[in-house]
Design brief:
Length: 374
């Protein structure tokens, strides 16, 4: 997984570095990845593994049988789900005005960077709507999700949940507010106690927030929906694979909170194989109908299918915003990110990577130049 959790243009730089090194040194290359497009670009021979067994090799590995990691914009997700957008304007559930997060003093002095990691951030989430947050690595996406989740201090601005300012809530009152507002992060291992069984993990929200304890039948139904066997209930989180933990943590953040109004997610589907990714996209589309959803991700295929609006972060500021179905970005930076991510053919990807200028450090320009070339 050499490029997981990288934005589309940084990913292209990493692929270029791998290709250049192998060409110059004559080194052999072994790549383990969920990204079938990258596998086709980098490799000449393939092994497909399922449950510890090689089920397909290069001799019978036909390109048309590969599961595509991306869907064309506007494609219908699994089960024909399209998301529900009411005709009437839905109520606002989450508002952010003038948000600013300051960098640590030591970091400012060492890196000679601006004082603020985030500056003048504003957004509005309504029930049944979703916002996608994109930007190159280091643009501030994770910092923004962490700030909106109330996990780091905010220097300026206001965050309102259901019209109530969150900075006024502390202790037990803040915990009660957490019933309506949850966050999920990229590394599910940090969100799950490795010594808890899956059943204990699913019961934990009810224990903390005085909800009725869910039945084992309901828990097995949830596991079935995210394609985990019912036998997982007795297994500990430490016994699960990364992808299984990712699915479990995401499902719990929605299923475990019946009063949930806002869900903030940072790279929720990173590291999932194509089948698991489809399952969780369908799960999020189903949940989206009754809550406000914000997703920060480098996977623009996910953003395109789930989100109604796209905000583009650069250097801690929102520099562009569009409807996810229109893609009519104003800045070259945003156009570059989207164009690079839209490449779906391994030959085109190799050609785009080979065009990259080593002296060009403006990542956003690369995809834009390539889209103009096409």
């Amino acid at each position: 997984e050499p490029t997981s959790a990288l934005d589309s243009v940084t990913r292209a730089w990493v692929l270029r570095a791998i290709l250049d090194y192998c060409d110059a040194s004559g080194a052999a290359l072994l790549v383990v990845t969920h990204h079938t497009l990258e596998a086709q670009m980098l490799a000449q021979r393939f092994l497909q593994v399922r449950q510890g067994v090689v089920i397909r090799t290069n001799d019978d590995y036909w390109e048309d049988e590969l599961i595509s990691e991306y869907h064309e914009p506007g494609a219908t997700p699994l089960g024909g789900c399209t998301g529900i957008i009411p005709v009437d304007v839905p109520p606002t559930v989450f508002e952010v005005e003038g948000l600013g997060v300051e960098r640590g003093r030591d970091y400012q002095a060492r890196e000679d960077r601006p004082a603020f990691a985030l500056e003048e951030i504003g957004l509005t989430l309504r029930r049944g709507e979703s916002i996608g947050l994109i930007g190159e690595t280091g643009s501030g996406k994770t910092t923004l999700v962490t700030a909106l989740a109330g996990l780091i201090e905010v220097e300026t601005g206001r965050i309102r949940l259901g019209g109530k300012e969150l900075d006024r809530w502390r202790g037990k009152a803040l915990r009660r507010m957490r019933r309506h507002w949850q966050a999920g992060f990229q590394d599910a291992s940090q969100a799950l106690n490795p010594h808890f069984t899956v059943e204990q993990i699913l019961v934990e929200p009810a224990r903390l927030h005085d909800y009725p304890k869910p039945s084992r039948v309901a828990m097995k139904e949830l596991l079935d929906e995210i394609c985990l066997p019912g036998s997982c209930l007795g297994r500990t989180a430490g016994e699960l694979s990364f992808g299984q933990k990712q699915r479990l943590a995401l499902a719990r953040s929605i299923w475990g909170f019946p009063e949930l109004e806002v869900l903030l997610l940072d790279e929720p589907l990173t590291g999932l194989d194509a089948d698991a990714r489809e399952i969780m996209i369908a799960f999020l589309l189903k949940a989206k109908a009754h809550l406000g959803l914000l997703i920060a991700s480098h996977d623009l295929g996910v953003i395109d299918r789930i989100c109604d609006e796209v905000l583009v972060l650069q250097g801690g500021r929102i520099v562009d915003s569009v409807s996810s179905k229109q893609h009519e970005f104003v800045t070259d930076y945003a156009k570059g990110l989207w164009a690079t991510a839209a490449i779906r053919d391994p030959v085109d990807l190799r050609r785009a990577v080979s065009m990259m200028d080593r002296d060009n450090t403006a990542f956003g320009d690369v995809g834009h130049q390539y889209s103009n070339h096409l």
